[in-house]
Amino acid sequence: MEPRIDLFAQETSAKFGKRFANAGLVIEQSTLPRATQELVKIRASQINGCAVCIDMHTKEAAAAGETAVRLNLVAAWPEATVFTEAERAALALAEEGTRLADSHHGVSDETWARVREHYDDEQIGALVCLIALINAANRINVIVRNPAGSYEAGMFAHMVN
């Protein structure tokens, strides 16, 4: 499978990609736990059917020490016992924030209250931005049909700064 277009070979999209990666770095360097960040990215990518992002973020999470059990259960997180209450709140926010078109109410007050119980304002800001950013990345990759399977942890580190 080949992508429809190489966005890194186009001036405008390559410039955008570098800035996009730097936006991700801002979130990565926040106080939002790294494991939570990867779990959120994986769940949103599963919902959006973005294979390349699932490939990337499961490999990054594994390289950072995440267990196979937790990675395998992200898709079924509500029924899984391996996630903390804080992670469950973040995953609920990611799910509702990704499925906006499925609910005329968007993110529920219940989910928002659960997030507020576990994260401070700085972390919530990072979490909201992360959900927006991964959804944008999913859409870009799905539109151009970027293939999955060949990602290696850290391979895009050169893009930032």
From TrEMBL:
Domain of life of the organism encoding this protein: Bacteria
Coiled-coil annotated spans: none
Domain Carboxymuconolactone decarboxylase-like positions: 23-96
Pfam families cross-referenced by the UniProt entry: CMD (PF02627)
Name of the protein: Alkylhydroperoxidase AhpD family core domain-containing protein
